[in-house]
Design goal:
Number of helices: 0
Number of strands: 9
Structural class: mainly beta
């Protein structure tokens, strides 16, 4: 799955539910990200996101950002990549 997000709205929510898969989510540099992940054997490459505990990852400016996206995911054996552009 390849998903490219834009920054036309101030807040957006994305939900992903997958089994064995490879997922790439492209996010604009000016969009703050929160990722909540319920995963099995998932390899993660999460760009600039920090681990906040409890399977939650955020960009450092998430709480103060005017433009943000909240991503929730349930994955099995997967590869998940967040890329900035």
């Amino acid at each position: 799955i390849m998903l490219k997000l834009g920054d036309k709205v101030d807040f957006n929510e994305v939900s992903i539910d997958s089994g064995a898969s490879s997922i790439v989510i492209r996010v604009p540099n000016n969009l703050a990200v929160q990722l909540k992940l319920d995963s099995g054997l998932t390899a993660k490459n999460l760009a600039d996101l920090s681990d906040k505990g409890d399977n939650t990852f955020e960009s450092k400016d998430y709480d103060q950002a005017s433009k943000k996206v909240k991503i929730t995911g349930k994955t099995g054996a997967a590869s998940l990549t967040i890329e900035r552009y």
